[in-house]
Structure formats: C-alpha cells, structure tokens
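New to this. Please check this record:
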Amino acid sequence: MVESACKWLIQQRFKGVGMRWSEDGFNHLLLLQLAWVNQRFETLFPHVPDPAVLYSPNR
C-alpha cells in the first residue's frame, strides 16, 4: 500500500502527459521538491532573495 501511494504521488507530481525524465533529471527535481516541502529551499539557493521580504509593503 505504501509503495503504491509513493508511486502514485511521484507520477502525479513528476510525470505529466508525454513527459519523460532521465534518472539524473528526476533526482534533481526530487531534491528541489523535497527542499521546498521541508521549507529548506533557501539553503540550496542562499543568494536568491525571499520575494515576501523583497516586495514587503513595510520595506
């Protein structure tokens, strides 16, 4: 059941109609997705400013 859920989730997120990924390409996308979900995206790209702070009305 868990394997089925994982397979379904991955296919829903990474495999649209006609899309094909190499194993390396998929692994890169998976790392980005995991960083985003775990709110650690900024650790991968520390030089990119946070848009919420950059365009804050209080700034």
